[in-house]
């Protein structure tokens, strides 16, 4: 069902809610795989029947039933296998449809589907980071979420719906969202900082490079984690809620203002970007030699084990007096356009992304729901860590899902070290990156 009227969600970019890492468990969730066009994408004339979708309503939803003899294959990440085993068992008990599970990193699933889908070898239901959606949808690899469209829109955050949609169509079934927040060691930081000026002031009293001790550490060369410095004062990646490839906002006045704040923090983290990686940062935080860390929920279990009651978690400090805007990534189910059992596949995607399923996923894996009722459940609201991620995610933006998002990472991840390591003027560095992105988008890069 076309829903362009719904997709101009003016506040969508600021209404996410956090979860598990956007792409498997790779500690940064940022690369999302290649966004080049799928090599074996079907043309319009060869796309499977049903790819255009139907116009079902909520009243018809209750009448959908699995096809006779239906069986399903589901691709799932290794890290979340416990959830999939449990939810697949419940689905089979309810619908009498056997479910086979194959482990495959979410960031690899669109590529594999482009190869295996036309030969009917791909999974019936896939799990992907939402920023891979544009690539899959533009290659006609997915069926729209038509039967459960209205329920999905009603039950989930606006940002989740934005992330699960492409070119005005809802394709995905959101199940979890992830962003990052500020971890801190309560034995070192008595009060969570409210502003990055507070971080800077604390760092001046704590940082001692000769002792390899720092007030804060994060992956300063990685745009995923640096996005608050681009966006909080008005910068952005692509305009029109991340859909306009020709409107690049990484070098706007607001972005440059925020990146000037970013540059100041080098004083309390006086090491080059290439000398920071997740393993180094994790070890220093666990040992008490880093007092604060900007990272995501994938580090939560390890940090709790290392610090116990001394572990604190809070939304990101303000940037230049403005609320910090982080990037949000969603994991969404989607249905293979070549499935032999579209009804059963859609039922599974809906069943495994329901309120109850999202609460189960949180319990087993630690993810943050996108379902509105699940977010208000005591299981989520009473957890100080999960609720902190959820609070930050209210001020996050969905990562753009257009294929051109793949052209952003390299230029920006080259510009940020220029600013941090070499002290290059942010405007100079980001103007260069913006031009590189434009050239890549237009196929004119050298």
From TrEMBL:
It holds the Pfam family SBP_bac_8. One of its GO terms (biological process) is maltose transport. The keyword Lipoprotein applies. InterPro entries: Maltose/Cyclodextrin-bd, SBP. Keywords: Cell membrane, Lipoprotein, Membrane, Signal, Sugar transport, Transport. GO terms for molecular function: carbohydrate transmembrane transporter activity; maltose binding. It comes from the Bacteria. SUPFAM superfamilies: Periplasmic binding protein-like II. It is a lipid-anchor. This is Maltodextrin-binding protein.
């Amino acid at each position: 069902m076309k829903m362009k009227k719904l997709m101009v969600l003016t506040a969508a970019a600021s209404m996410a809610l956090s979860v598990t890492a956007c792409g498997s468990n790779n500690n940064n969730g940022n690369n999302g795989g290649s966004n080049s066009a799928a090599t074996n994408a079907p043309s319009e004339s060869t796309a499977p029947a049903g790819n255009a979708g139907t116009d079902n309503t909520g009243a018809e939803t209750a009448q959908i039933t699995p096809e006779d003899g239906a069986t399903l294959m589901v691709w799932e990440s290794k890290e979340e296998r416990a959830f999939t085993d449990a939810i697949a068992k419940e689905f089979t008990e309810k619908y009498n449809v056997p479910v086979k599970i194959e482990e495959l990193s979410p960031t690899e699933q669109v590529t594999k589907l482009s190869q295996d889908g036309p030969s009917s070898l791909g999974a019936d239901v896939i799990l992907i980071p939402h920023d891979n959606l544009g690539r899959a949808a533009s290659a006609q690899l997915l069926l729209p979420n038509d039967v459960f469209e209205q329920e999905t829109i009603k039950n989930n955050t606006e940002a989740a719906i934005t992330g699960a949609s492409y070119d005005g169509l809802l394709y995905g079934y959101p199940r979890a969202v992830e962003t990052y927040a500020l971890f801190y060691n309560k034995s070192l930081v008595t009060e969570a900082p409210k502003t990055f000026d507070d971080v800077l002031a604390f760092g001046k009293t704590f940082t001692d490079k000769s002792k390899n001790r720092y007030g804060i550490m994060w992956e300063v060369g990685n745009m995923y984690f640096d996005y608050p410095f681009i966006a909080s004062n008005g910068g952005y990646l692509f305009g029109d809620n991340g859909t306009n490839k020709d409107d690049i906002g990484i070098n706007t006045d607001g972005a440059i203002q925020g990146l000037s704040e970013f540059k100041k923090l080098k004083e309390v983290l006086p090491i080059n970007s290439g000398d920071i990686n997740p393993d180094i940062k994790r070890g220093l935080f666990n040992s008490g030699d880093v007092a604060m860390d900007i990272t995501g929920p994938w580090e939560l279990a390890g940090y709790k084990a290392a610090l116990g009651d001394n572990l604190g978690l809070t939304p990101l400090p303000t940037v230049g007096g403005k609320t910090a805007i982080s990037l949000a990534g969603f994991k969404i189910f989607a249905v293979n356009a070549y499935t032999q059992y579209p009804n059963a596949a859609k039922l599974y995607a809906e069943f495994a992304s329901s309120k109850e399923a999202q609460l189960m996923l949180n319990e087993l894996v630690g993810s943050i729901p996108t379902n509105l009722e699940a977010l208000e459940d005591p299981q989520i609201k009473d957890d100080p860590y999960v609720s902190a991620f959820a609070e930050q995610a209210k001020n996050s933006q969905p990562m753009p899902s257009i294929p051109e998002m793949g052209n952003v990472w390299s230029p920006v991840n080259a510009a940020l070290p220029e600013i941090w390591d070499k002290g290059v003027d942010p405007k100079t560095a980001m103007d260069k990156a913006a031009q590189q992105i434009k050239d890549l988008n237009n196929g004119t890069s050298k």
